[in-house]
Amino acid sequence: MKNKFRQHIEKTTSLTDEEFDFVFSHFKRKQIDKKQCIIKKGKPVENVYWVLKGLMKASYLDLNGKQHIIQFAMEDWWITDYQAFINKEKATIDVSCLETSEVLVLSFSDREKMCSESQKMANFFRIKSNASNAALQKRVLTLLSSNSEERYNELLSEHPKLLQRVPKHLIASYLGLSRETLSRLSVKKRIDVKI
After folding, report:
1. Burial 50-85 (b: 16+ CB within 10 A, else e)
2. Structural domain includes residue 171
């Protein structure tokens, strides 16, 4: 587990053994049961989570009771309500487990302490934040400008494992599609692959 986390960090910045031990000392390992909610709308958000094993989702429930999937997080991904975490506000979304998950938990105060004492980790989180912002912009633009088939094909191309692990109604919500449209697209894709 420590090796996997170190590999994740070292995709961005290299650490000595001593530096990694310092970084790792700020994290807590936690197992979270399937369907358990770790961030609840209206509650304070104190932690960010790195997924070691499992699958999580961030979602928003609108005034009509419709669930909108904002993000999935599987192995090697980070998740939280970033707006609430960074600004010390109450959560506007829920984060829950789609599978029993094992995560490393980092509190806001520990993250700030770590970054103030380690330029490498401050740089790591800056790079991660920039990548996250770019991915979010791409997702919004895709939702605004792409048709349903293009959105489905992009998800299939970039994250094929998600389609195998996530229930179809949640994939449909993430793509802004009806369940029927998603079923039609997945059938069409299977036919295209066979031809």
Report:
1. bbbebbbbbbeeeeeeeeebbbbbbeeebbbbbebb
2. yes
Cα gap 101→172, rounded to integer Å: 23
Element (H, E) at 38: strand 37-39
Q: Is the pTM of this model over 0.85?
A: yes
74 within domain boundaries? yes
**66 and 7 together in one domain:** yes
Range of the domain at 177: 146-195
The C-alpha atoms of residue 125 and residue 168 are separated, in whole angstroms, by 32
Query: Quick check: 95 and 58 in contact, CB under 8 A?
Result: yes
56 touches 95 (CB < 8 A):
yes
The pLDDT profile of the chain, 195 residues, written as one tens digit per residue, is 899 999 999 999 999 999 999 999 999 999 999 999 999 999 999 999 999 999 999 999 999 989 999 999 999 999 999 999 999 999 999 999 999 999 999 999 999 999 999 999 999 999 999 999 999 899 899 889 999 999 999 998 999 888 889 999 999 999 999 888 988 888 776 655 433
